Amino acid sequence: MAYPASYKYTKEHEWIAVEGASGTVGITDYAQGSLGDIVFVDLPKVGDALEAGKTFGSVESVKAVSDLYSPVTGTVTAVNEELKDKPEKINDDANNTWLLKLDLKDASELGALLNAADYEKFVSEETGH
Amino acid sequence: MAEEANGLRRTALHATHRAHRAKMVDFGGWDMPVEYSGLIAEHMAVRTGVGLFDVSHMGDIQFRGPGSLAAVQRLCMNDASKLATGQAHYSAMLYPDGCFVDDVVVHKLSDNDYLIVINAGTRDKDVQWVRQTVGHMPSIHISDYSEMYTQLAIQGPRAEATLQKLTDTDLSAIKNYWFTWGKVCGIYNVMIARTGYTGEDGFEIYIPSDEPTSTRVWGEVLQAGAEFGILPCGLGARNTLRLEAAMALYGHEISETINVFEAGLGRYAKLDKGMDFVGREALKKIQDAGGPTRKLVGLEMIERGIGRDGYPVHTVAGEKIGAITSGSPAPFLKKNIALAYVPVQYAGIDEVVAVEIRGQLVKAKVVSTPFYKRPKKTA
Q1: How far is A79 from chain B (nearest CA, A)?
Q2: Do A40 and B329 touch (CB under 8 A)?
Q3: CATH number at residue A120
Q4: Domains of chain B in sequence order
Q5: A78, A79, B12, B96: most buried, per Cβ within 10 A?
């Protein structure tokens, strides 16, 4: 399964897994595939405030830079420090490689995100496959 | 070569690239593979083993007749009279102001027969420029043979061992930037040149551009290189390989607004070759005035960040002084490198500058180029 059913997705290709008031954010398998070899991840700091739909960092492959967009509004509680030295982990397993965790400000924002089936449909429309 | 519905041109190997699930990209109007198995893996294959590239989008213009040397000498800045039959060299066609029409590789096929290999994105412009500039000269026949060849680049330390399996021509006898004709994959009179655009040893072969032949040779090269871990490579790896070797790319390091001395290619401009080539006068003037005011330099990022094409370059104090022409992570060197134009007073080795990366100034230093130089053969 390329896109876990328990996650929610953005049209900018981030996923979020929510447990209570805490969210874990990563990028989708489609995103890592279209970027290619990821070599650099630029993330915010613990305590930073993120806003739904706004950029909070970037991932870079050898060829390209891609901005990261926050699925929801919230405060960063943890950042995956391992990615500083091993950004390629995202290519290896995008679904289980998290970028950051945050405390959600308003869980109702999740309603605006895509579920797995809709995201998969969105990606297939975007690529024309 | 065919054109598809979206207006992009295709090489004879287009179906092969698609069938092997290469990621495709629009490159100068061509639908070309940007990567196959992954850019880093492909880059490393070329540095440590062997890689295969479809570079059929490159163009080929042939000059024949007793006037051909004079035409090439008028068009191109290097001194083609120094070439022996079977020898090639790097050169460029210039506008009267000393800036670039295109950079080219000139091959001397025989006394009255020269082939120049030109870039894909500039093909139509180049052909027009050639006809307009030397078309009136006596005893010369100019042919655009761009559609005639499928051009394959076999690059890397195991390129010779790979290609040697497919030809009885002694490849070890071909020196760097020389070429010969031989039977390759059963095809007679294939031009085999020890040239490339990767900073690595390797060959470029020119085979008939029909699809069955192109597909067959592509497959046979991959099979021959299998024991050396050959990978089909895309333009992504081609770009990072040439960047590590600090080789110019048209539209980036060289263009219609950049002159030869700025680009650091003055050693290929033979001002005293005895033929007034287009652009010579302007170059002479720049030289007499003490040289260019800006220069192409190599940069290595000191702080965390990747400088990329078009990013501005500042002094450490924040004054904008130039821009990056090509910048990328360097997969083999494992550094973030770039080529950039800066005023000559900032071009000294170890000069610290700042690259503007999405609003942030990130430090980099000027380093000597090429960033990567292949090890001398030991065996």
Answers
A1: 17
A2: yes
A3: 2.40.50.100
A4: 14-53+148-244 (3.30.1360.120), 59-144 (3.30.70.1400), 293-379 (2.40.30.110)
A5: B12
